[in-house]
Amino acid sequence: MGMLMSSLGKGVPSTQMIGFVMGTLYKQFVDRDIQCFDDFHFAILDIFNSFNSALPGKHYDAPSRKEVEECFHAWTEAGDGSAKKELFVAFMKKKVHLSRLDDSTMVAGIVTPPAAMAAKRAGENVPQLKMIKYIPDVIFVPSATVLAIVTAKLTKRMFLGNFAS
Length: 165
Fold this sequence. Notes:
By secondary structure, the protein is mainly alpha-helical. It is built from 7 helices and 2 strands.
């Protein structure tokens, strides 16, 4: 549809599109019966889940619980519906960020499969590791890759704490 609109020269300006999307999200958000913070937090997480399942290839990071709690307190203190909607739209515009891979994950994902194959071939010639020959490549390589990515993420999180992505 975007290509059709562009080819006709009648594309919708991006600010109007953002306003439309935010209005639709707010309508979905308000349709819920929000009585407490848990309901509010669940509604926000449901919106991010909808984003991530509807848009192939793009994933968005949900805001932290603390940020959602601050927004909830401001949202409950806002009086009428228009002030609540403006607060919600500002929160979503400020907190919706594309999820991105860090460099360590990318390097581990690219380097590990060839290294795993080389290690498996070398291990087949070592008498103590002869049983490695019986593990199929289609199981060994993905397992080694997942293990390397998890190790890279955990190591980065341990050393950098909250600064890691």
